[in-house]
Design brief:
This protein is α/β, with parallel strands linked by helices. Helix 1 packs parallel to helix 7 and helix 4 packs parallel to helix 5. The strands form six sheets. It has a seven-stranded mixed sheet, sandwiched between helices. It has a six-stranded mixed sheet with strand order 9-8-7-10-11-21, with helices on both faces. A hairpin with a 6-residue loop joins strand 5 and strand 6. The relative contact order is 0.14. It folds into two domains: 270 residues, Aldehyde Dehydrogenase, Chain A, domain 1, CATH 3.40.605.10; 182 residues, Aldehyde Dehydrogenase, Chain A, domain 2 (3-Layer(aba) Sandwich). It is built from 15 helices and 22 strands. The chain binds nicotinamide-adenine-dinucleotide. The site of nicotinamide-adenine-dinucleotide (NAD) has 26 residues, from helix 7 and helix 8.
């Protein structure tokens, strides 16, 4: 396990020698200590990234050259997939098969953006037809510059890949800060990039507190673009910092996503996807479909099946065979989710199952998967993100009512609909005010497709070609080609 900062192609302790603890959420034991970056360390990282961008030629490399590095990073991740997946489990708590999936996806993300980096060579410029024949014009894409990337703890390596891969593909250089509770695999990414021969300064990884290292990144004048995934309140701070310096900014924030199930749906299929939509990754998923709306005709039967299956989920240490629900990521998150359940009960919600620490666990941040009914429409349980394995479910009568309830949220990240009537499913999908819509499923995520939210769920899109655009500027180059003099001052 690595413990130092990766700045300008070198490993180093923090400038004041401080460290912070890494806690395994399954055992509550301190398993490691990692350097806590200071503002001085962040300054060194930004300066290295600046030099790599302004002087050392990373943005000037042909896309196919940058693609070679990205593919080497993808191969490096894959060659150590099993080991990195285990690190993710002891750091984050998620079950090993989920971590394994994440690590494979992270490698795939680097491969995908290698392909897009190559395509940048084929489409370097776009001719623009002008009404004025005295000029020609073209648009070219150029990297924005130094990207400051700040990520959360729910998909540690994957969130790093979603930002680092498109940024490097575009020709940007990067300073990345992982979440303080899950920094282990980001440091492995630095090691893999180093082994891949990535030039010094192109990727810098600084671990540490949001209020210190994160704040130093967003305040640094040498950073051109801020790319953030995390909570709304921190997103607002980042947007304010970006506004002050007119930095480019993209935000991937929270959600309270609806899942509408019509009464022609197969009940078992619906239950499977409802569970995947809220219990996967312990519900610590920004796009989790945490508000389920079920049509009256099947509501009681579906609820009974859901409770029956939810009670069967095997809870335990993510490294244990067959476990499908690990501990929550940290003590803080665990206490917040427990408090949200208590508040839901106080507001009048009924616990259909779960809601407490499972029997037989005296250590670890474990929580039974929880289904709440009767959560009032104006309660926090129905309206606010809980970010844990906690589902609110309620019946609806008509399609119109379902759409109205689904869209009645300040968030707009994701939404799902299930129906055998394809026309109806498409109609509801079109009516959702959300950036990601699933029909007859919930949560599958594709590197090729745009990812991001409407409303307070964020600004901009990651993944696919949209993810690359996040790190590109558009430049217009227009040329005067007429034989005639311009003739404004000099006749
Ligand atoms: P958080 O906002 O507390 O932290 C996210 C990151 O921001 C961390 O690296 C943290 O250190 C850093 N940070 C904190 N204060 C900062 C500051 N003042 N300046 C700069 N950086 C600072 O969120 P979290 O607890 O890590 O993650 C949970 C939240 O993230 C949830 O609300 C969830 O919905 C959201 N999330 C969204 C997506 C998405 O794709 N939209 C994905 C994952 C998580």
């Amino acid at each position: 396990m690595r413990s130092e900062l990766y700045i300008d192609g070198k490993w180093r302790p923090s400038s004041d020698g401080r460290t912070f603890d890494v806690v395994n959420p399954a055992s509550e034991e301190v398993i490691h200590r990692i350097a806590a970056a200071t503002a001085e360390d962040v300054d060194a990282a930004v300066k290295a990234a600046r030099r790599a961008f302004d002087k050392d030629g990373w943005p000037k490399l042909p896309g196919r050259e940058r693609a070679r590095y990205l593919r080497a990073i993808a191969d490096g991740i894959r060659s150590r997939q099993a080991e990195i997946a285990r690190l993710e489990v002891i750091d984050n708590g998620k079950p090993l098969p989920e971590a394994d999936w994440d690590i494979a996806d992270a490698a795939g993300c680097f491969d995908f953006y290698a392909g897009l980096a190559e395509q940048l060579d084929n489409n370097p410029e776009e001719p623009i037809a002008l009404a004025d024949a005295r000029f020609t014009s073209k648009a070219v894409k150029e990297p924005i510059g130094v990207a400051g990337a700040i990520i959360p703890w729910n998909y540690p390596l994957l969130m790093a890949a979603w930002k680092v891969a498109p940024a490097l593909a575009a020709g940007c250089t990067v300073v990345l800060k992982p979440a303080e509770v899950t920094s282990l695999t980001a440091l492995e990414l630095a090691a893999i990039a180093d082994e891949a021969g990535l030039p010094p300064g192109v990727l810098n990884i600084v671990t540490g507190a949001g209020s210190v290292a994160g704040q130093a990144i967003i305040d640094h004048k040498g950073v051109d673009k801020l790319a953030f995934t995390g909570s709304g309140p921190v997103g607002a701070k980042i947007m304010a910092a970006a506004a002050r310096d007119i930095k480019r900014v993209s935000l991937e924030l929270g959600g309270k996503s609806p899942f509408v199930v019509f009464d022609d749906a197969d009940i078992d299929e619906a239950v499977e996807w409802i569970m995947f939509g809220i219990f996967w990754n312990q519900g610590q998923v920004c796009s989790a479909t945490s508000r389920v709306l079920v049509q009256e005709g099947i509501y009681e039967r579906l609820l009974a099946r859901l409770v029956e299956e939810t009670k069967k989920i095997k809870i335990g240490d993510g490294l244990e065979e067959g476990v499908l629900l690990g501990p929550l990521v940290s003590k803080r998150q665990y206490e917040q989710v427990l408090a949200a359940i208590e508040a839901a009960k106080d507001a009048g919600a009924t616990v259909a199952c779960g809601g407490k620490r499972p029997g037989g666990f005296d250590k670890g941040y474990y929580l039974e998967p929880t289904v709440l009914t009767n959560a009032p429409l104006d309660s926090d349980a129905w309206r606010e993100e809980i970010f844990g394995p906690v589902l609110c479910i309620r019946p609806f009568a008509t399609e119109e009512e379902a759409i109205e309830l689904a869209n009645d949220s300040r968030f707009g990240l994701a939404a799902a609909v299930m129906s055998k009537d394809d026309l109806r499913a498409e109609r509801v999908a079109a009516a959702f005010r959300a950036g990601i819509v699933w029909i007859n499923c919930s949560q599958p995520t594709f590197t090729e497709a745009p990812w991001g939210g409407y409303k307070e769920s964020g600004i901009g899109r990651e993944l696919g070609r949209w993810g690359l655009e996040n790190y590109l500027e558009t430049k217009q180059i227009s040329k005067y080609v007429s034989e005639d003099p311009w003739g404004w001052y000099i006749k």
